[in-house]
Amino acid sequence: MLRRIGFTKFPGEELSVPTARAWARNLLVGRIKTVVLDDVLLLVSEVVTNSVIHSDSGRKTDGLVTVYVACAPGVIHVEVTDDGSATSEPALRMPGADSDGGRGLWLVDLLATSWGVHHDDEAGGAVWFQLACDVLPSRPDRSWM
């Protein structure tokens, strides 16, 4: 069973990508091993970037991207929700060798133990991923403050 460690909302803008990454780093440092933390942070950056670029969260002035982080024995779980899109759905595709983009879900597929997408008409779209790891002994939870 997943135990939520933290969640927060970010404006649907490109400046939120490094902010979301820093938030996740602060939340997870000392909870998971550095090698796994580096992969989690890379994937957070990729998925938040996709939400900002490809969803309505990045198209409307009050759009939001929400990042949830949870853990279970042997796994860290991250879910990024956005306002969805009427014109596109998250999909895995092979990036072109000379392409500047298109590697977000490809990296998720490459690094994550498991991942998926889902859509809800009220909640919007979500991409989640999990990485296998040993969650280190708990530290005081400050993510809700």
Strand count, sense and barrel status of the largest sheet are:
5 strands, antiparallel
Could you say which overall geometry the principal axes of the C-alpha atoms support?
globular
Rg result: 15 Å
Q: Quaternary state, please?
A: single chain
Strand content: 25-35%
- Helix share of residues? 25-40%
Report the structural category: alpha+beta
The number of strands is: 5
Fold topology:
Blueprint: E1 3-11, H1 16-28, H2 34-54, E2 64-72, E3 75-82, H3 104-111, E4 114-120, E5 124-132
Helix pairs in contact: 1-2, 2-3
Notes on the protein architecture:
29% of the residues lie in helices and 29% in strands. It has helices spanning 16-28, 34-54, 104-111, and strands at residues 3-11, 64-72, 75-82, 114-120, 124-132. The model is unreliable at 140-145 (pLDDT under 50). A hairpin with a 3-residue loop joins strand 4 (114-120) and strand 5. A five-stranded antiparallel beta sheet has the order 1-2-3-5-4, covered by helices on one side. The chain is of the alpha+beta class and 145 residues long.
Briefly, what is this?
The chain has 145 residues and is an alpha+beta fold. Helix 1 packs antiparallel against helix 2.
Please tag this protein with its features:
single chain; 145 residues; alpha+beta; five-stranded antiparallel β-sheet; 3 helices; 5 strands; 29% helix; 29% strand; globular; disordered C terminus
